[in-house]
Amino acid sequence: MARLPYSVQCTRIIFFIFNILVFIFGFTLLGFGIYVKASKKLDIALSEHINTKIIGGSTLEWVGVIMIIVAVFTILLSAFGCALYKNRVFLYLYVIILSLLVITELSALIITFTNRVRILDSYYSDFQELFIEIYSNNNNTDLKYVIEDIEREFKCCGIDDVTDYYKHNYTVPAACYQDEHFDESIFNQGCANAVIPWLWNQFAIIGSVLGGILLIEIFGIVSSIALGMAISSSSYSEINN
User: Fold this and answer.
1) What are the distances in angstroms from CA 45 to CA 2, 72, 75, 183, 203?
2) Residue 195, domain extent
3) Which of 19, 64, 111, 212 could join 36 in a cystine, given CB atoms 3.0 to 4.6 angstroms apart?
4) Looking at the 3D structure of the chain, how many domains does it have?
């Protein structure tokens, strides 16, 4: 059996290393996807009511789902990738599937950073309007619980601070107190200043993870195509020789 050219052997080694990296990053992406779906703080800060009234949709809820689905396919693809590198047809099929994953991840990345900017621009003003709307209508009990959950989880009070309750003649809720028994000090920080920077940082982390995996996978597409072309060139040379 003829020995494979050095270029093909070298490309196969690179492809093998790439698959190991993708396998590892696939689990990283899976972990972050589960975190996005399971995080109590994210769930509260981007609850159904908040997401609808402030951010204007439920697209962010799908980011975690997309990350989990893509991670599972990435792990499976990288696991089978090492078994496909000898077959040119399977390699090109591998490239097609990986390209679809890249497009999906790119969509999730765009959603993440687009909403990151929207949150910074609109969270404060819309949250303030929502706050006034909730406490001016005694029937908004469910939405009051949403605000109180945010205050409790982020250890904050009001929009800017507790004076938001005073100037609108609202009763300061138990969630604003450090022990919720009205006999300890009130949280000094407003919820806008607590939630917005935290969300900004969370989306930066999620976006960075998606971006890092995207770069690895784009490199994988290039190396797969290069390996396929190297195998084609090697086969063509053997036929002509």
Assistant:
1) 62, 27, 30, 27, 13
2) 7-235
3) 64
4) 1
